[in-house]
Design goal:
The chain is about 50% helix and about 10% strand. The strands form two sheets. It has a five-stranded parallel β-sheet with strand order 2-3-4-1-5, sandwiched between helices. The chain has a three-stranded antiparallel β-sheet with strand order 6-8-7. Helix 13 crosses helix 14. Helix 6 links the parallel strand 3 and strand 4. With about 400 residues, the protein is α/β, with parallel strands linked by helices. The protein is built from 16 helices and eight strands. Keywords: Heme, Iron, Metal-binding. One of its GO terms (molecular function) is metal ion binding.
């Protein structure tokens, strides 16, 4: 079939043509937007799940909802070992730019811009990490507001002023944070405290974070009350009916149809993981000679889709690991055969490698920092990428 008409989108963070299986989350956030704009108390949100389940796509979708409601929005992607002060300043500048041109009181807008500039300029030089952003506003930086150098206090003041400005327009502010688990412990504690204070004021500002499965545990470790501060949403693989919709609806828009056996095989190949669904559907479309798409078309395309995942999705992550970390992951892969959630005890990993657990801590910690494994419970580890254990079992050392 014509590859130009191929409707599937197997790209990182690319929205699929049919966002199947996420209707509940979208509706829940619609309620949040309505309640916050009406001055009613509401919690911020945290999305968590494995890589490839569509967290970033959902995060962007929720942001689009806020934009349609005329909210001011900004988005950042957290990075290890980088302060969130400057990225948040950039995101809040974007949010206020969306609101500023609609605000009738230019003095109010300038006052906030001055506070934002003061907040940004408190970024330590060693926290800039190559970022050369300077607040693009002509106003003089404010003094005595959001410029103390204490991130928690400064965030509270910055968020409060941003919420006041949005409240004048009967809308809100949304800060969207991807890879939230990579925020340092101190910064995360400050962010939680600021969210806590803002929520107590019923201010029209929400934070929506997305991260790996252990993000709720990371938040709980930073602030004990974070368990009640956020609404937690687990983003998982698609159920069979949602997977079928993700496949059929885009195809039907091009007058192309799937045989039932082809849908069965695609679900078996992908386990309903959204990124895999898009990758296999894209390859199957390109190999199918005509509609309807058959199970034979899927079989022909599957090796190409698998090879692409091996290089781009699995291989690129494997190459980032050191030899010691690869040895640790291979032991995890062998132990994880038949384990439903893929979690394996760290003590068993050490036993398999005939090593003391303490001697493997650097390898485990390095893998966690690189986002290749996570520890949702003390004494266990699991891969952040679905099917990664299967990939490692087919790869030689």
């Amino acid at each position: 079939m014509d590859p130009i008409r191929n409707p599937y989108a197997p790209g990182a963070g690319q929205r699929p043509p049919e966002l199947a299986g996420r209707d509940t989350e979208v509706r829940q956030f619609e309620v949040v937007l309505e309640r916050v704009a009406a001055g009613r108390p509401e919690r911020s949100l945290v999305l968590s799940g494995l890589r490839g389940v569509g967290k970033t796509v959902l995060l962007n979708t929720l942001r689009s909802q806020a934009i349609k409601r005329a909210w001011g929005t900004g988005k950042i992607e957290a990075r290890p070992d980088q302060s969130i002060r400057l990225p948040i300043a950039q995101a809040m500048h974007t949010a206020m730019r969306e609101l500023g041109h609609r605000h009738r009181d230019d003095d109010r807008v300038d006052q906030f811009s001055a506070v934002l500039k003061a907040f940004a300029l408190r970024t330590a030089q060693n926290d800039r990490k190559g970022i050369r952003w300077h607040p693009p506003v002509d106003v003089v930086a404010a003094k005595g507001r959001a410029d103390s150098g204490d991130l928690e206090m400064d965030l509270i003041e910055l968020f409060a002023d941003a919420a006041d400005l949005a409240g004048d327009l009967s809308v809100g502010v949304g800060l969207f944070i991807d890879e939230m688990q990579d925020i340092s412990t101190d910064d995360l504690s400050a962010l939680c405290a600021a969210c806590h204070e803002i929520s107590q004021q019923s201010a029209p500002l929400v934070v929506v974070g997305a991260g790996l499965p252990h993000l709720p545990a990371v938040l709980s470790a930073s602030k004990s009350y974070s368990e009640r501060l956020f609404r937690y949403i687990r983003v998982d693989r698609l159920a069979r009916d949602a997977c079928d919709r993700a496949l059929m609806i885009p195809a039907e828009s091009e007058d192309v149809y799937f045989e039932d056996e082809a849908l069965d095989e695609l679900y078996a190949q992908t386990d309903g993981y959204p990124y895999f669904v898009q990758a296999f559907a894209h390859a199957t479309w390109d190999h199918a000679p005509a509609s309807p798409i058959t199970v034979k078309d899927v079989a022909v395309a599957a090796p190409e889709a698998s090879a692409e995942l091996t290089v781009g999705f699995f291989g690129s992550r494997y190459e980032r690991a050191t030899p010691a970390e690869r040895e640790y992951m291979r032991a995890m892969a062998e132990l994880g055969v038949g384990v439903a959630d893929g979690s394996v005890p760290t003590a068993e990993v050490a036993s398999t490698l005939n090593r003391k657990p303490q001697s493997l801590s650097p390898a485990r910690d390095g893998l966690i920092k690189k986002g290749l494994v996570f520890s949702a419970e003390r004494g266990t580890v699991a891969f952040t990428v679905p099917h990664f254990g299967k990939f490692l079992r087919t790869r030689t050392a």
